[in-house]
Every structure is written in structure tokens, then in C-alpha cells.
Amino acid sequence: MSNDKYRILCTRPVTDSLIAVAGERGIHIDVQEFIQIKPLLLPGLQEKIHDAVSKTMVFTSANAVQILSKNYLFNTVVPDAQIACIAGNTKQSVLETFPDCTILAEADYGNDLADAIIQRESTHEVSFFCGNQRRNELPGKLKAAGIIVNEYVIYENTPITVVITDDYDGILFFSPSAAKSFFSANSIHKNTVCFAIGTTTAVALKDYTSNKIIVSTGTSPESMVQTAIFYFNNINCYE
After folding, report:
1. Coil, helix or strand for 151?
2. Is 60 exceeded by the pLDDT of residue 80?
3. One GO cellular component from the entry (predicted)?
């Protein structure tokens, strides 16, 4: 018989080890994706890829890192890569993909990452690899500061419509687009707690629900799961 006290829906894949850790703390995690990531192969970019990666590369998602490496660089190593990126899962993907890179700037959010790049004063041009639903704050702020932004949209977020028939104690949301996709076909019980990967996702959730929203302590899947574990194991502190 299961000893799980709480049930959580995770809207993107997480590792089996994270699911096991949660299970040990009385939390059962179901995984259901609400966004499909599809690479976009740009003929013009393939011809310019070596020039693009020779400039400071900017990443705000792990998807962009992985798709650039697999579909454009074919997993070849970029020597002396100069990179600015979001902390957490994106940075981890950067370090795995570009082991000899230099992290010039990092921050938890795109707006703050733009500030960190601008403050360096020595960065005058960047290659920004992103998806079709990227936010405007980072490229807009860089351009306003006089930095040339070469933007390459190398993947697209496609909503997956799934109707959820079970009630959950908590739901983990990793992006505004996942929240939009989920609530396009679902509503939630008034006591269901929403967990957001960051403040941007938390703000997006407020467009769809008045339920309690808890912001993760970090920007990685591990942080999200640990935030949920802490919440449900210390639920009286939040009442």
C-alpha cells in the first residue's frame, strides 16, 4: 500500500531520482507534458553558425542550448565559448554542452541577465538563441543599451491539449506557456497549490487562477520539487 500523503502533477519531465526523493517524503508525482519542443532548422543559420557561436552566446532556456548543440553544431565542441545564461537548469546544460566555456554573466531571470550583460561594458554584440515564445525583456533591454542582438529562433513551443481528470494537491509549472496550455483545457480544485519556477511564471498563473501560488527557491527542476516537498512537509507554516 502506498504511503503517499500528497499527489502532485508535474508539467514537464523530471528524473526518476527526483520522483523517488519525493516519494520518500510522502509525495507522489505524476508527469504530464503540456508543451512540445520542436527544433526549427534555419538554412541561413547553418551557413553562419561558426560566426554566430564566435560571439557572446546568450541562452535563457536549456532547450536552446541542447537544440543548438544537437541540430546545428552536431555535438561538436566550441572552443573558448563566451556565454551569458540563466542560472539553474540552463546553466547546467551550458556547462555540460560547452565544458570549456567562460560564463560571462548569469542571473535567475532574463531581465536581470540583460542588466548583468550591460554592466560588463565590454560586450557589444551577442548571438541570442531562443524559442518562438521568448519574452521581450532581455533583447529589448540589450538593444536599448546599444548592444547588437543577433536573434536566432531555433525551436518552437507547441501546446499539448490534455484533459486532467484527477484532483491534485499541487501542480508544478515551469513556464508561462505551460500554464497557458494547461488552463486552456483544465480547471483546478480550490485547494490545489500552484508552484511556479519563477516570478514570471507566477505572474502568468494569476491570469488563470486565484489559488495559492508558491514560487520555487531556484530555477531548476530539483529546486521545484524540493520547494514542493518543503511546502507539504511544513504545510502548517503556510496557513
Report:
1. strand
2. yes
3. cytosol
